[in-house]
Design goal:
Blueprint: E1 3-5, H1 15-36, E2 41-47, H2 51-59, E3 63-74, E4 77-87, H3 88-99
Parallel strand pairs: 1-2
Antiparallel strand pairs: 2-4, 3-4
Length: about 100
């Protein structure tokens, strides 16, 4: 497997503790995917209006690669979706910088 999508669902009421838990969980997912499975790429998507999810993926070192305009139905309306991604070499470089 060369790539996988990272998926996290957080209730809106989870607040800061939910975000911290998600940050830890997503970091573990990246470590597992890049380290254990040797993935080349991990990506995540979120509703364009979900600022908390976009910030979370940015904090994980993922970059925003795309905004898919009106790409899916959300509550009976067409909505935009953001796509974030990270490559294995970016994860390795970030991990080394954070630990050293």
């Amino acid at each position: 497997m060369a790539a996988t999508e990272e998926a996290l669902w957080l209730p809106l009421a989870s607040g800061a503790l939910g975000i911290l838990g998600a940050l830890a969980g997503a970091g573990i997912t990246q470590r597992w995917g890049f380290g254990e499975f040797g993935l080349h790429r991990v990506y995540g998507r979120c509703h364009a209006g979900n600022e908390a999810s976009a910030r979370l993926m940015t904090r994980l070192g993922m970059r925003c690669e795309a905004r898919h305009i009106e790409s899916y139905l959300f509550r009976d309306e067409w909505a935009d979706r953001l796509v974030f991604a990270m490559l294995a070499r970016e994860w390795l470089s970030r991990s080394a910088a954070l630990s050293g």
